[in-house]
Amino acid sequence: KFAKITLDRDFRISRIDKRIYGSFIEHLGRAVYTGIYQPGHPTADEAGFRKDVLDLVREIGVPIVRYPGGNFVSNFYWEDSVGPVAERPRRLELAWRSTEPNLVGVNEFADWSKKAGSDIMLAVNLGTRGIDAACNLLEYCNHPFGTKYSDLRISHGVKDPHDIKVWCLGNEMDGPWQTGHKTALEYGRLADETAKAMKQIDPSIELVVCGSSNTGMPTYPQWEATVLEQAYDDVDYISLHTYYGNRFHDTANFLAQSDDMDHFIKTVISTCDFVKAKKRSKKDMMLSFDEWNVWFHANEEDDDTMKNRPWSVAPALLEDHYDFEDALLVGLMLITLLKHSDRVRMACLAQLVNVIAPIMTEKDGPAWKQTIYYPYLHASKYGRGVALNTALRASRHDTMDYSGVTDVESAAVWNDEEEELTIFAVNRDLQEEIVLESDVRSFEGYELLEHIVLAHEEMTAVNSAQTQAVLPKSVTGWDGLESGFLSSRLPKASWNVIRLK
Ligand code: AHR
């Protein structure tokens, strides 16, 4: 078994848009209530936001957070979420069969985002509403003053506009589960007309149009083509969503699913470029992979809760308890995003707190880190700069659904400002250690700074509020650097971050 990469300053994929390390907070389950917001918790600040959660979010460095949904947005009445809290209505929330108390809304979330050091990617409701509600919300958020909705914002105590730059035109509109689900043509027309009106209000914004909810949708990828034929000129990104799981307890097959993500991205790029050619357009459509993660552990429990429980505020939903192998796949998915950083300009790990999340909270206790927290942290922290083509050559294996799966996957990022080079590598062989040989002659004078490894004997090992069983460690003596050739030991089934400076 072998793995070889060649890294050169001139083999550039692209300068990485830091927004690929974005995440997502939806009004779903305990993401908001008892997640980011819990007045009365010992760590709550004056606004009711949990400082223990904010600390963990800031530690990762999350450049952008998508809000308020997700499926939630397709029946979201934004006006209910602003103004004096005591006057806000409680609403039936259709997507997750919950009661929405509207204690946190657009202005509170903007406040939280500032504290977290994140920008907002705000979604508008194109399910039960349309152009008017989207325009009014934009006017409320971004117009300085002197109009109905900007003055309404000011009357709510928010003098300065939020100046939100990225807006999603609805959510997963191809899905029959979506409130206000549409055909591609219906949605493409509505998205385009909404885009044009929104850009009249604020030409500086960027817009994300909905692609398919996943590659299994019967309308994929014709959905992308039809929607873009309508909206190509007026939008800036098309969204991609995917979630993977290990339903058949087949780890090798599970870890091969980042190859599916790679194929998905390539197909969407091809579809965008097909429409570009048809339209004789000069513009490249960029990709926003604004929902990605592992999601399957809590499915059965959630089905039961959604059917058999009365309407309630913030029921525990989608609380996947991630294990060690999930962290490996999350690492592999991050590598895949980096490999496509020339076209994938934004991405959101879905989600951030309590709901399919790297950060969990105990209602009467601390916030804690799930296994998947770590690859996300490492990529966001060390994956800034220029993505390099690694020219990977590696031995391969086949799995139940995939063939020619490389035993090792790798991405490399050169932080040209800090003069640092980081290699991210996953050994997805379950039996053997593999030595990664890296030709780094182009980085003369660089020395090994650190090799961080996340490994565990048990694929099913998990973290909890009490223990961090899956924890990265810095290892020494695992790497040798001689005359520009680096060799690094990658233990079986491991996530590795090798840093040079
Ligand atoms: O992230 C959870 C849900 O997954 C989102 O609400 C929806 O967009 C997707 O189906």
UniProtKB/TrEMBL annotation:
Domain Alpha-L-arabinofuranosidase C-terminal: 290-494
Keyword line: Carbohydrate metabolism, Glycosidase, Hydrolase
Pathway assigned to this chain's UniProt record: Glycan metabolism
InterPro entries reported in the protein's UniProt record: Alpha-L-AF_C (IPR010720), ASD1_cat (IPR055235), GH (IPR017853), Glyco_hydro_b (IPR013780)
Catalytic reaction(s) noted: Hydrolysis of terminal non-reducing alpha-L-arabinofuranoside residues in alpha-L-arabinosides
This enzyme's EC code(s): 3.2.1.55
The UniProt record lists the keyword Cytoplasm: no
Subunit note: Homohexamer; trimer of dimers.
Similarity section: Belongs to the glycosyl hydrolase 51 family.
PANTHER family per record: ALPHA-L-ARABINOFURANOSIDASE C, ALPHA-L-ARABINOFURANOSIDASE C-RELATED
Protein name in the entry: non-reducing end alpha-L-arabinofuranosidase
Protein species of origin: Neglectibacter timonensis
Taxonomic placement: Bacteria, Bacillati, Bacillota, Clostridia, Eubacteriales
